[in-house]
From TrEMBL:
One Gene Ontology term from the biological process aspect of the record: lipopolysaccharide core region biosynthetic process
A GO term from the CC aspect: cytosol
Any one Gene Ontology molecular-function term assigned to this protein's record: ADP-heptose-lipopolysaccharide heptosyltransferase activity
Protein name as catalogued: Glycosyltransferase 9 family protein
Pfam families: Glyco_transf_9
Keyword Transferase: yes
Family annotation (InterPro entries): Glyco_trans_9, LPS_LOS_Heptosyltrfase, TPR-like_helical_dom_sf
Keywords assigned: Glycosyltransferase, Transferase
Record-linked SUPFAM superfamilies: TPR-like, UDP-Glycosyltransferase/glycogen phosphorylase
């Protein structure tokens, strides 16, 4: 290379290169050293060594050369130093070279480094130095971006984006590819705002640039504005009509708006313009598949294999180099290789069809081998034995190949051909090991163990659509007594953030040593999987495990357009109502989790036989042993469905079986239970009555009828039927005092012991009967649970309170819930004793002062800030959860974060009345929520009663606080699930038991969203009055 002509750096010394070609490097080097000794520049030897990859020698010779005024020596040293990894030396010499050589020479040199030498890193050193000398030369920034494009590290990509921005700012027209390269660089980091800005600037100059219009529309779509994306492509079509790619894009964006008919018309137009438009064909197949027109979809679906956007080394491309794609040729004596094509989830979804195709291949005298990714092979090999790993082989020499996504079209499948049952299974020993691992990791006992997937691969084109922000998952993550387990590795930062927020999440993915075989075992050991559209969704469905799938508005074609799908019986779909709107999806999933069965560690044998209410016998019932086996089997099936909390299925199944055998008492009983849980009380009463008629001596079934009669206000029959309560198996050891049991005799002047029973709420509710007895002239003592002792002393008509069996003597005793029959209690009698609880005035005063102090602090702050004094806030007590040990607590309790829209109501001083484990949820409230937390100072129910009497309103789920507020005559709003017990009656928003109560009822089991919205609206009105 000549020292004097840098712009032509490839000018050879022909003699030297001839020797190199004819005699080899050693002879050429000897001659080069001779020439240097005779006075030639050492650069000659340096260039020769560099051509042979001997950069150390090249560097040494170049360093020995004399410095020139055009920077050639420094440029060469920089090149060779870069090749040796000496970045500092390369950069210093680049700066020295640039300082003395003309700009044109620098640009020509760097082009030579990039295009001829393949040395982009060296070129980048030179260009960085040159930019310092000529910051206004757009060529330097452009070529720097070109040089950096081939460097792999992330910092090079960031530097390249900056270089492209500089070039674009200096001269947008320096190269036709610059705008698109800039857009793609910012698309890579999902900076959609920058993409939009640049695209709009380009389209202002050239509205017909279809590629830039497409990039703008993609950015708009990523921002959940498919309508704007459609408008962009329509503008591009107007500027240059008939472009099939533009028409296909319009069709895609119409589909994203769920305008499927319009989308199909646009896609047909694209194919009419260009029948080979593969993307339009694939999108048309998508539409047909999602609506169930599979025969019409499959021919278009194959166009996915013709797309020109495939990476050269993707699985399909590699397999096509191995063997030709099967087009239906005879397979006699041949081997067909069915291989992976897209994601792992797609392989799991489609592998179910491989055995059917393998049978056809065998019938032709051929052989089918399944080749999947290494991570899937151990799992799928248990399903299809002749399964090998693509990475590990042996693949042999197959005659034909077939992508696995083409198997359904090859078989001509329709939706009705798909069986949705489980077809994969976890390896038994591995599943057992995972159960142990889960048990060891979960810490304190959990009600449910839930697998969780909230994000997918960021390289997936729909990942921003399908992935859910962590904050949006709060209603699910905050569910009480639930432990969550990520099912995708590499989410360490997210998991750490969730743990820091107090959520119960355990990351065990480090134990995924056997690929999907471990994932399958993990999923098999969990109660349910909650996931976005990802491989674990397909895996859970293929294993037959319960899966709650959270889908974006217009998701993958496999999930159709509704909330049903043919692929997996165990998968439930929860779809966004609008693009980007995850809140309703997450709320519904949270409600569904609450309505699901208990953890496998709390199996069906632990379904409670007695609930904490007067509905205690309303549990799914096994039939008595004396019933015929043919009658027991359907009732047992209904029992199992109820025990698994599948109440709709239980009701539906019972109805079907009763159409065959209407005299099956067990079916009637389980139907009654299911309808009670669903809030369909007319049906509940009908089946309870039939079961009681058919089994007149069965105590649980007879007691169910009492609950049904009382719910509808039939007190005369209901209280008589209530006698069966004492005959329930769990009540065989009820204490009976040694005094006469009251049967309705006159009580004036008599000593009477009123005996509490069942739950605390029941005892509070029926303490009112002490006042009635007192008005009849009785001297009334009560025997109640110890936590109620202080409270009972506040009840009207009570003389003495006992918490253990009193010595007596008494003239009569009676249990609280046997009283109504003997006193002939009717609905009109209920309000007569109201209110019957009142706290000690001194205690009320103490608690009122504490709440006043909170208001005073706020007023002081306002004065200090010279703000107007705030108006007195409404004081509202709140209870959001009950005792978690209660069998149906999952249905009545509501996680506190679900209340946040209500807690935002201005003009309210919130006072937490919550006790128990759920009180910890208050600590996670944002600091700006105004909630007074007196719990540590609440000593007993008397304190709670005193607080209630200091409030304007109480809002509570169905707990003892509802009874306490009602008994004190305080305004109380009670949020009720569909499966509430009989005392709240049916189809009414008030309560004859508590005239101060207002009831807010669920419309659907587990769905609190509409109830909370009703409360929010009512509270807004309450505050403004």
């Amino acid at each position: 290379m000549s020292d004097s002509i840098l712009v032509n750096p490839v000018d050879p010394v022909y003699l030297l290169w001839s020797i190199l070609r004819e005699q080899g490097f050693d002879a050429a080097e000897r001659r080069a050293l001779e020439l240097v000794a005779q006075g030639a520049t050492p650069q000659l030897h340096a260039d020769l060594c560099a051509s042979a990859g001997r950069f150390e020698a090249a560097y040494h010779s170049a360093s020995q050369a004399q410095a020139t005024d055009n920077g050639v020596r420094h440029a060469r040293v920089a090149l060779f130093a870069d090749a040796l990894g000496r970045a500092g030396t390369a950069q210093r010499n680049s700066e020295l070279a640039v300082a003395v050589q003309p700009p044109a020479a620098t640009i020509e040199w760097t082009r030579w480094l990039i295009e001829r030498c393949g040395a982009p890193s060296a070129a980048a050193h030179m260009l960085r130095a040159y930019e310092q000398h000529a910051p206004q030369d757009a060529r330097a920034s452009w070529w720097l971006a070109i040089a950096l494009a081939t460097l792999p590290d992330a910092s090079a990509r960031a530097e390249r984006r900056a270089a492209l921005l500089r070039a674009y700012a200096l001269d947008p027209a320096i190269h036709p590819a610059l705008p698109l390269q800039l857009v793609l660089a910012f698309r890579e980091i999902r900076d959609w705002a920058t993409v939009e800005r640049i695209c709009r600037e380009v389209l202002t100059r050239d509205p017909a640039d279809a590629e830039i219009a497409w990039q703008l529309s993609h950015a708009q779509w990523q921002g959940n504005d498919a309508a704007a994306a459609e408008a962009t492509m329509r503008a591009a079509n107007a500027a240059a009509p008939g472009n099939p790619h533009v028409l296909a894009a319009i069709g895609m964006y119409l589909a994203e708006q769920a305008r499927f008919a319009d989308s199909e018309a646009a896609l047909h137009a694209a194919l009419a313009s260009d029948p080979s438009a593969s993307q339009a064909a694939v999108d048309l197949a998508d539409l047909k598949l999602r609506r169930g027109d599979w025969p019409g979809a499959w021919p278009h679906f194959e166009a996915r294999l013709r797309r020109d956007d495939r990476e050269p080394n993707n699985v399909v491309s590699v397999m096509e180099r191995l063997c030709p794609r099967w087009q239906g040729e005879s397979l006699a004596g041949k081997t067909l290789l069915v291989h992976s094509e897209q994601g792992n989830g797609d392989d799991i979804q489609m592998v179910r069809f491989v055995p059917e195709l393998a049978a056809r291949v065998r019938d032709e005298g051929g052989r089918l081998v399944l080749a999947v990714r290494r991570a899937l092979q151990p799992l799928l090999a248990r399903f299809y034995a002749n399964c090998v790993s693509i990475e590990d082989g042996p693949l042999g020499e197959p005659d034909f190949g077939l992508p696995i996504m083409s198997v359904p079209s090859t078989l001509g499948l329709r939706p009705e051909n798909v069986r949705g049952g489980a077809y994969l299974s976890g390896e038994a020993n591995r599943v057992a090991a995972w159960r142990e691992r889960i048990h060891a990791s979960s810490g304190e006992p959990a009600r449910m163990h839930v697998g969780l997937v909230w994000s997918g691969s960021p390289t997936h084109r729909r990942d921003a659509k399908r992935s859910i922000p962590l904050a949006a998952l709060a209603p699910v993550l905050a569910l009480p007594n639930v432990v969550f387990y990520p099912l995708t590795p590499g989410r360490d930062a997210d998991v750490a953030a969730l743990i820091a927020q107090g959520y119960r999440i355990r990351d065990l993915t480090a134990h995924y040593q056997a690929g999907f075989d471990d994932v399958a075992a993990h999923v098999s050991a969990l109660d349910v999987v909650v996931t976005i559209d990802s491989a674990p969704l397909h895996l859970g469905g293929a294993l037959g495990r319960p899966v709650l799938a959270m889908l974006d508005h217009v998701s993958h074609w496999a999930w159709g357009n509704e909330e049903t799908q043919p692929w997996y019986d165990s998968v439930e779909l929860f779809r966004q109502p609008q693009p980007g709107d995850w809140a309703p999806v997450v709320e519904r999933v949270a409600d569904r989790l609450l309505a699901m069965p208990l953890s496998h560690e709390h199996g069906l044998e632990k379904v409670p036989a007695r609930l904490d209410s007067v509905d205690s016998a309303l549990v799914p019932a096994r039939l008595p042993a004396h019933l015929a086996a043919e009658s027991a089997a359907p009732a047992q099936a209904a029992f199992e469905l109820n025990s698994a909390h599948r109440f709709q299925d239980a009701a539906r199944f019972a109805a079907q079986m009763l159409a065959i055998d209407s005299q099956n008492a067990g079916l009637h009983h389980n139907a009654s239970y299911a309808y009670n849980m669903l809030g369909e009380f007319d049906q509940m009463r009908l089946h309870a009555a039939e079961a009681a008629r058919l089994l007149p001596d069965n105590a649980p079934i007879q007691f169910n009828l009492a609950a049904a009669q009382l719910r509808f206000g039939d007190f005369e029959q209901g209280w008589k039927q209530y006698r069966w309560h004492e005959a329930l198996p769990e009540n065989h050891d009820l204490v009976r005092p040694d005094f006469p049991e009251w049967q309705g005799e006159p009580v004036a002047g008599r000593r009477f012991l009123l005996v509490g029973e069942q739950g605390l709420g029941d005892q509070i509710q029926f303490l009112r009967l002490a006042a009635w007895l007192n008005r009849q002239g009785a001297l009334v003592d009560v025997w109640v649970a110890a936590p109620l002792a202080e409270l009972a002393r506040c009840a009207s008509g009570v003389r003495t309170v006992w918490v253990e069996s009193p010595p007596g003597p008494y003239d009569f005793w009676c249990r609280m819930l046997r009283m109504p029959e003997h006193m002939k209690l009717t609905l009109p009698m209920l309000p007569l004793a109201m209110p019957y609880l009142s706290a000690e005035p001194a205690l009320v005063h103490r608690w009122r002062q504490q709440i006043d102090a909170a208001d005073a602090t706020e007023a002081t702050d306002a004065t200090a800030n010279a703000d107007p004094l705030p108006a007195r806030k409404k004081r509202v007590g709140l209870v959001w959860a009950g005792n978690p040990d209660y069998g149906l607590d999952r249905y009545r309790s509501i996680a506190l974060n679900r209340w946040l829209p209500i807690l935002e109501q201005s003009g309210v001083r919130w006072v937490s009345l919550q006790i128990g484990p759920a009180q910890d949820e208050a600590a996670a409230l944002p600091l700006d929520f105004d909630v007074l937390l007196p719990d540590p100072e609440i000593g007993n129910f008397s304190d709670t009663l005193a607080i209630l009497q200091s409030l304007d309103l109480v809002i509570t789920v169905d707990t003892s606080v509802a009874h306490l507020a009602g008994a004190a005559g305080r305004p109380v709003w009670v949020l009720l699930p569909t499966c509430t017990d009989w005392r709240w009656m049916a189809d009414r928003d008030d309560s004859p038991w508590y005239p101060s109560a207002r009831l807010f009822r669920q419309r659907e089991l587990g769905r609190w969203d509409t109830v909370l919205e009703d409360v929010r609206t009512a509270l807004r009105e309450f505050v403004t009055v």
